[in-house]
Design brief:
Elements: H1 2-17, H2 29-44, H3 51-63, H4 68-76, H5 88-95, H6 100-110, H7 113-116, H8 135-144, H9 155-169, H10 171-176
Helix pairs in contact: 3-5, 5-6, 8-9
Length: 180
Amino acid sequence: MLCLSGLSVALALALLSGPSEALKEGECEVCVTFLGKFYQSLKDSNTNFNNGDIETALLKTCKDAKGKENRFCYYIGATSDAATKITNEVSKPLSYHVPVEKICEKLKKKDTQICELRYDKQLDLTTVDLKKLKVKDLKKILEEWGESCKGCAEKSDFIRKITELMPKYAPAAAKARTDL
C-alpha cells in the first residue's frame, strides 16, 4: 500500500512539472538578437537601468527598426500602430539585468508569434546570379537598401537598378562580380 502511494506521488509530480520552457537553439531568433543588441546599446550609452528610461529607449529604437525587427516591435506594442502594449514585459526585466533569453521565454508565453519570427536568409551578392532570382527577391534587395525601382516593369529593369546601386550599398560584391 505504501509503495502504491509513493508511486502515485511520483506520477503526480512528473505530470505537474510539465515540459521545460527553455528556448531551443534558433528559437525566438529575432527576439533574442534584437533584445541583445538593445541591451548592449543601453550598457554602451550608460543609460539608467530603470523601467521608464528603458521603455523610452525601446520606443526610440523601435521607431528606427525595419523588417522583422519592426514586426517584433509591433508584437510587443512598441510601435505607434500596435494594438496591444506589453513593453513593460521587456523593460522591467531588463532593468533587473535578466538575460534576454529568459525575457523571450516569457514573451513567448504571452504571444507565440514573437518566437515565430525568423530573419530572412541573406543573399551573397558576390556569387548569386541575379537573373535566376525571382522579382520578389530582387525587390527585397532594393528594399533592404532603402531604394525602390519606380518604372520597373520587367525583371531586367530590377537587375539593372541593383547592379547600378551595388557599388554604393555592397562595394565588395560589386568589385567581386565579373558579369557587370
